[in-house]
Fold this sequence. Notes:
This protein has helices at residues 47-55, 97-107, 112-125, 141-153, 171-188, 199-205, 223-228, 233-238; strands spanning 9-18, 21-31, 36-40, 62-67, 70-71, 82-86, 159-163, 191-196, 208-213, 216-221, 243-246, 248-250, 255-258, 261-264, 273-277, 283-285, 296-307, 311-317, 323-329, 343-348, 354-357. The chain is an alpha+beta fold. It is elongated, with a radius of gyration of 25 Å. The mean pLDDT is 93.
Amino acid sequence: MNDRLLPAVSFQGVTRRYGAVTAVNDVSLDIAQGEFFALLGSSGSGKTTLLMLLAGFDKPTEGRVLMSGTSVTEVPPHRRQIGVVFQNYALFPHLTAAENVAYPLKMRGIGRAEREERVKAALSLVNLTERGASYPSQLSGGQQQRVALARALVFGPSLLLMDEPLGALDRRLRDQMQLELKRIQGELGITVIYVTHDQSEAMAMANRIGIMAHGQLLQVADPETIYALPSDHFVARFLGECSILKVTSIDGGRGYEIAGARQALPSVTSKPFDIVVRPENVSVHSAAAQATGNVFEVPATIRDITYLGAGWRVTLTLPDGQSLLATIVRGDEIAGYLGPGKPVFARWAPTSVAVLPAEGSS
Ligand code: ADP
Ligand code: MG
């Protein structure tokens, strides 16, 4: 069988318990060769544990981990051909940048001449050619992280694991490193699994995102899908601001109603459901428009206005008391009319709505 067709990584029913704590709970996931996969979740959701199980620093309580179709349960970490980069760069302070990068090669018994050549190439890859003789303390945080990256890549791994690698850097440097990581991944064609708690970072970088909570993988999809069609309340909220609305199912689940206004849904939903709408998809108007087609329109009252620079975030109250977020940009007809307590009309297109399983029954 052609290796390129097999998933680079497969987690099959992987669980890791520490006493009473289930850090990873029955995770099954395939990651394709060459994919940039982001594991996204808040602190304590099990992301690092999952990486450690893959890197071989820890063993699953149940299930197994495969690389290119072969179980790696009995393979020690240094034989798995995996490069790892952590948030705290973990560089050796008494070694220069070049010596740090050379370390994995030395461990693998690679001779001096080849070592020097490979270190040079790795430092060049991360744009640090000039700094090989510097000690970590003489380098900025961003430069230290580049050294850590060069060290993780120098022995030519097929898989790179990164655990919140940019967490210690400031915003501007982080944005720059994100672009550079994408470039390096493209150049090497390597598979990357990238752990982060920052949803914008995951969306900017990944081909696919896996959302974790309480050790479980809740949804795996490409960034556009996971943002537009979240699988549940948690995923919807985690991916950015949204309004989750209680609705009344109509026509046997073919549509919904809020305060007398109705909209058809693209497919029938038989179980109880809520809907989610993102603020940028809600438009606000001073007058009713007898909206055409399947556009949804409901009267509302402005409750709160926040200036964002590029526009305004407006919180509306619907006739049934529910809250709805909308974004207004400069130049919108409504912009000159904004004020708390003003009556308006909120509108959205059918493509802006995602259906979520109803949560609780409050
Ligand atoms: P994340 O990386 O998403 O922040 P972790 O994988 O580090 O999450 O942790 C997941 C859960 O497992 C947490 O509740 C954490 O306290 C627990 N945990 C992780 N490692 C250990 C360990 N060695 N012993 C006991 N509990 C652990
Ligand atoms: Mg972690």
